[in-house]
Amino acid sequence: MWHKVPNNANNANSRLQGRTVYTVPMPVDLAERKRRAIRGELSEVALALLTDRKFESLTIDEIAAAAGVSRRTFFRYFTSKEDVVFAFLDQWAVRLAAPLAAAARTDQSRPPATGGGQCAGGTPWSRR
User: Fold this and answer.
1) Which CATH fold would you assign to the domain 28-104?
2) Which of 10, 21, 33, 49 is 20 to 30 A away from residue 114, measured at CA?
3) 81: burial class by Cβ within 10 Å (0-12, 13-18, 19+)?
4) Residue 126 near residue 116 (C-beta atoms within 8 A)
5) How far is it, in rounded angstroms, from Cα 105 to Cα 14?
6) Which of these, 103, 80, 102, 84, lies nearest to 92 by C-alpha position?
7) The overall pTM is greater than 0.85
8) Is the Cβ–Cβ distance between 40 and 91 less than 8 Å?
């Protein structure tokens, strides 16, 4: 994947700042996959409980019990109930954006924007 290194990147090699570099996706190890799975499960369980109850009435103990983990395990993954909801929204945004980004990369049928086009009735127009 090609990425542009920002000019203000603090931890980048000074020769690479502002340049486009090729990066290789790194494989995720088993422990990280497990962490992501548990975090996702906690988030989904919490949101399932929140569909039936108000946010204020739901406790962390109830979320942990429904997910089959201890309160301590819950706090390894989230600092509060709010974090559980935000984690779900983050996952949702990533799931929504991935197909859109893939479609944009593979869509070659659309001509490049040239500054001209047609109105709704088919009448040509151009920018001045």
Assistant:
1) Tetracycline Repressor; domain 2 (1.10.357)
2) 21
3) middle
4) yes
5) 30
6) 84
7) no
8) yes
